[in-house]
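Please fill in the sequence for the structure shown.

STRUCTURE ENCODING:
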């Protein structure tokens, strides 16, 4: 599918920043709108005027309220941004005749399965963040025929603090770390996800997809692999059960996603690419 004009919401976020850079590097015309430039809490008409100015052919809606424990404390705010805000973006996409790609999450699932979730599996969110993102999906489906729902998980990228960075900092400072070993998912680099998003949305095969790097880990085995890949000791890392932690929000303890026939790199290959970027950044 040939189009040129992308618009990315949440462009200052961890994924948004990498996605805008990636798409520009591929020669697309890309407008990235930050939270300040496009606040989903603003009225629909105002958002529509802002977006219409850029005449996008496709909107990648990455903006979201992403604080999982915060959403448990303020579910109304999460719902207003992730459900109602996504509804506004879907209405705008419909009215302007553009395609919508909605970035969604493994947290739409309850984690009760022990084999990777496919797009056909039934969502059943177990926390307020997951519920708000799932309602966002439903808004997109209700309003549009030409949409991509792109579920991803356990994201890390150089532009925001994330689990990989937490592990690297802990290892370099020699801090003892206790990491969950019975919570499994698919770690995914924002760089490889950006490539997957471009591949999918230019395919014309609309629908719901799972888009993660290949491989499944517990947080603990991921932490070990991060240290080993960076040449750091793992002696300071201790495994612990999910039950030993007191998060405000319940997590789906198994949320490995099946990307189907989509070509995705192994997460350890992506990790190497991330580590190169990360160490370049910290040595500056
Ligand atoms: N991180 C993960 O592990 C993960 C996993 C699965 C799916 N996802 C999904 O991937 C997408 C990108 O996530 P991310 O990890 O890049 O998160 P992020 O860094 O928090 O990016 C989200 C962006 O949305 C913006 N935002 C928040 N409230 C907004 C509002 N009212 N109006 C407009 N923009 C608003 C944030 O701006 P401020 O920071 O200025 O508030 C931020 O720039 C999200 O849709 C998320 O649900 C993430």
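FILLED IN BY: designer on duty
SEQUENCE:
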């Amino acid at each position: 599918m040939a189009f040129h004009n992308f618009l990315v919401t949440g462009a200052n976020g961890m994924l948004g920043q990498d996605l805008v850079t990636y798409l520009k590097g591929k020669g697309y015309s890309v407008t990235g709108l930050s939270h300040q430039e496009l606040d989903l809490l603003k009225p629909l008409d105002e958002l529509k005027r802002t977006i219409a100015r850029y005449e996008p052919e496709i909107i990648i809606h990455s903006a979201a309220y992403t604080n999982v424990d915060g959403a448990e404390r303020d579910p109304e705010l999460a719902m207003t941004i992730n459900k109602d805000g996504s509804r506004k973006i879907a209405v705008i996409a419909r009215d302007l005749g553009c395609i919508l790609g909605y970035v969604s999450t493994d947290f739409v699932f309850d984690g009760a399965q022990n084999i990777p979730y496919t797009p056909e599996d039934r969502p059943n969110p177990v926390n307020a963040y997951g519920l708000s993102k799932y309602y966002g999906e439903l808004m997109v489906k209700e309003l549009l025929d030409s949409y991509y729902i792109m579920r991803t998980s356990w994201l890390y990228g150089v532009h925001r603090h994330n689990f990989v960075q937490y592990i690297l900092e802990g290892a370099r400072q020699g801090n003892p770390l206790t990491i969950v070993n019975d919570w499994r998912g698919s770690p995914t680099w924002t760089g490889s996800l950006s490539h997957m998003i471009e591949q999918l949305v230019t395919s014309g095969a609309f629908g719901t997809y799972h888009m993660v790097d290949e491989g499944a880990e517990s947080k603990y085995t991921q932490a070990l692999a991060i240290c080993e890949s960076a040449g750091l000791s793992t002696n300071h890392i201790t495994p612990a059960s999910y039950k030993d932690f007191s998060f405000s929000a319940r997590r789906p303890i198994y949320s490995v996603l099946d990307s189907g026939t989509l070509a995705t790199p192994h997460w350890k290959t992506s990790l190497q690419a991330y580590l190169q970027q990360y160490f370049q950044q910290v040595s500056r």
